Structures are given as structure tokens and as C-alpha cells.
Amino acid sequence: MSTTEQTAPLLEVRGLSIEAKGPDGPLVLTEGTDLTIRPGQTLGLVGESGSGKSMTGLAMLGVLPPSVRVRAGQVLLGGTDLIALPEKELRAVRGGRIGMVFQEPRRSLDPSFTVGDQVAETIRAHREVSRKQARNLAVELLDRVRIPDPGTRAGQYPHQFSGGMCQRVMLAVALAGEPEVLIADEPTTALDVTVQAAMLRLIKDLQEELNLGVLLITHDMGVVAEVCDDVAVMYAGQVAEVGPVRDVLSAPRHPYSAALRDATPDECRRGELLQAIPGQIPPPSAWPSGCRFHPRCSLAVDACREAAPDVLQLGRTRVRCARATENLTENSANNSTNNLTENSTNDSTENSTNNSAKNEGAGHGAR
């Protein structure tokens, strides 16, 4: 599904700005973020660490750290602004209509309760069922996220599960409230390659099966190419470019989008050096004037340094770049880039995906 299809949005982020308390006053962490998630669509939110991706996801659920707050903007779920909801009403949405999978599943799971009890607790918080029904539904959810022998594993504790299996448990918890939207924040962090592939395939399958809207937060363009329909590229608290994955990867309009793509390992470019992005993303206290990427951009001109660029609509893509209409990055798109999107899901990946849950589960019982 592309952004051009006339499907009513499930979730819309409009002009979202987030700020934190700083030693010399408020620090703006994100500014003017616009995102749209539709039923059956996976939107990737990609960028380096420190770009504001995770803060955006936390703000959408109203779980920002105490020193951080939403400065402006709306998060609309079915027309209801979640930012304006009282905490009691927001709790019904959080874990209910919106589920979230966090980066570090072991920190999210309570070590003193079995995984089955933790899934069942979430079910009872959002559905009117008995304890026995919740327990049975928890086992069904563990089976749905492809945990082997779910009836037995439901009675085990988080320390008896591998990292990949803990992430599957967290996915079951996220699905327990029958959500319309799933937010997955770096769900494959610290997992080995085969387990990563299995987790991504599982999320994609569940999205298609349940017609979920999915926001996938990641730093990896390869992950975006594999499972996302659309992508929003974030840099220094702003969305630099957003559009269909194929358009952004094959002909990126923003130099940062092109740089992220070219820094992504590609099987078809084996033996070639990856193109590292010079410098580092600046902290919010040191954001430059003009385009925030200009200190690291080889294509920057005086206009990029002097004034913040407007957001332009170019075909199916929106881009924040003063030189976007010059197609500066179009010539850098080559066959290997197309292969990122065409070859990311192939037979070998699917085979490893189908087998990895069995192999992983077999080797990680009580330990």
C-alpha cells in the first residue's frame, strides 16, 4: 500500500514538537513531525541514534520521560487527539488500540512472573474475559508469535528465554489488547542475523494477517527495504524526507537519505567499501542554522547554511531540502540500490525465517 492510496489514516502525527528541560532553558528534541499510518501499511521511521525517532514513538503513547514534554502538535487516532486525552483515557489506548514493542524486551518483562501471566494480565486489562479465558488466550498469542510449545513456555519465566524469544513475548503482549496500530522500536536490536530476519518476517506476516498499521522505528535502511511500504527519514529532530520506500531508495531527494542508503550493506555490492557519513549528528543544543544536515553534506551551498528549507511535495515524496528540485541524488541511484528493495526478501531469507523460530526455541529452555 502506498501513501497515494485513498485509505483513511489510522494514526496521524501533525506538527509534533518535543522539548526537554535543559540547563539554560528548553531544548527542542523534535520539530514539526508529520507522519501518517494507514491500515495494512508499515511505515519505517529511520535515522541515526539521536535523531528523535524513539522520542517520537514515546510521545505517541504519552510515555515520555518526566523531563520531556510535547511542545506542540497532535497525535490523532481515529480523529481523537491523544495528546489532549486525560491519563485515564490514554491508558485504555496504550496497550489497547496501540501496542508497542520496545528495544530491550528483558527490561520490559517482569522477572518474577511467568510470561503467560504477563500476557494474560494485558489481555484482562483490555478485554472482558475471565482469568481462565485470559490464560488460554495468552497461550494462543504465544503460538501466534511462533513460540514453540506455547502451553509449556507460558509457565516459564523471562530468564528462561533467549533474547529473540523475549522479543516474541513482548510482541504477544503488544497484541494482547487487539490493537489497530503497532509501534515497534528497534525490535531487532542485539539479535543475530537469522533471528532478526525471523522477527521482521513475523511482524510483516502479523501486519498483513491483522491489517495492522505498523510504525517500525530503526536505524537500518536494510530493514526498511525489507518490510516497509513507506519510509520517513529523520535527522536532528526533523523529517528530512518521506515517501514510498521504492521511491526514496531508488531516487532519494535528500542527501541524507542517499547517504543512509549508501551506508547500508548490500549483498549485491559485496567487496565495495561502504560510504560512511562524515561527522556526527549534532545534539539539540548545537543544531546548526539553515538545513541541519549542511555541516555533513557535500552538496551544501550558501542557501543551505543561511535559511531553513521549506518542505516540498515532489511526486509521492515530501522532502525538506533547498536543492531537492535539482535531482542531485537521482544520478547516484543504481542497480545495486534497486536490489536493496528487490532482493531483501528472497527465498533464502524466508527459509531461514521459517526455520529460525524452531531452532531458537529448541536451544533455549530453562537455563
Automatic annotation (TrEMBL):
The keyword Nucleotide-binding applies. Pfam families: ABC_tran, oligo_HPY. The keyword Cytoplasm does not apply. Keywords: ATP-binding, Cell membrane, Membrane, Nucleotide-binding, Transport. GO terms for molecular function: ATP binding; ATP hydrolysis activity. SUPFAM superfamilies: P-loop containing nucleoside triphosphate hydrolases. One of its GO terms (cellular component) is plasma membrane. Residues 13-261 form the ABC transporter domain. GO terms for biological process: peptide transport. It is found in: Cell membrane. Residues 330-356 have a biased composition (Low complexity). It is a peripheral membrane protein. InterPro entries: AAA+_ATPase, ABC_Ni/Peptide_Import, ABC_transporter-like_ATP-bd, ABC_transporter-like_CS, Oligopep_ABC_C, P-loop_NTPase. Residues 330-367 are annotated as: Disordered. Belongs to the ABC transporter superfamily. This is ABC transporter domain-containing protein. It comes from Streptomyces mangrovisoli.
